[in-house]
Amino acid sequence: MNTLVICTTCADGEGQALLEAVENEALARDFTQPIRGQACMAACSQGCAAALQGQGKHSYLFGRLAPDAASVDALLAVAAEHAEPGDGLLAWARRPERLKAGLIARLPPL
Fold first, then answer.
1. Which of 49, 45, 54, 44 is nearest to 18 (CA)?
2. How many Cβ atoms from other residues are within 10 Å of residue 28's Cβ?
3. Cα angle 29, 35, 40; round to 5
4. Can you give the pLDDT of all 110 residues of the chain as single tens digits?
5. Distance CA 93, CA 110 (A)
6. 102 three-state secondary structure
7. Angle, CA of 13, 5 and 42, to the nearest 5°
8. How many CB atoms lie within 10 A of CB 32?
9. What is the CB neighbour count within 10 angstroms for residue 71?
10. Is residue 108 packed enough to be buried (19+ CB in 10 Å), middle (13-18) or exposed (0-12)?
11. Is the distance from CB of 25 to CB of 76 less than 8 angstroms?
């Protein structure tokens, strides 16, 4: 199961606002992947942060996000791509623009 995790304590409440915006848009789109909040993902200097995780897949941590439509769209798009069969590698060229500059880390599968 793939999961989108959003830091809820980032940027003086903007992380919680981002989580709520993503959850609301996911409901509107019938997006079925799990989305959850996590207090402090230790990327405090990077603005709002979000991670993608999946069994047997590369994990990603993105920063420099905001609770706006561009970030919401980018996170839902990349979460759907990450959920596709395979090892979860997200080609830089196929990532939404909002996530190209905000990559903090990519971790190999366990």
1. 49
2. 8
3. 140
4. 899 999 999 878 899 999 999 999 999 999 999 999 999 999 989 989 999 999 999 999 999 999 999 999 999 999 999 999 999 999 989 899 889 989 999 999 98
5. 25
6. coil
7. 60
8. 8
9. 25
10. exposed
11. yes
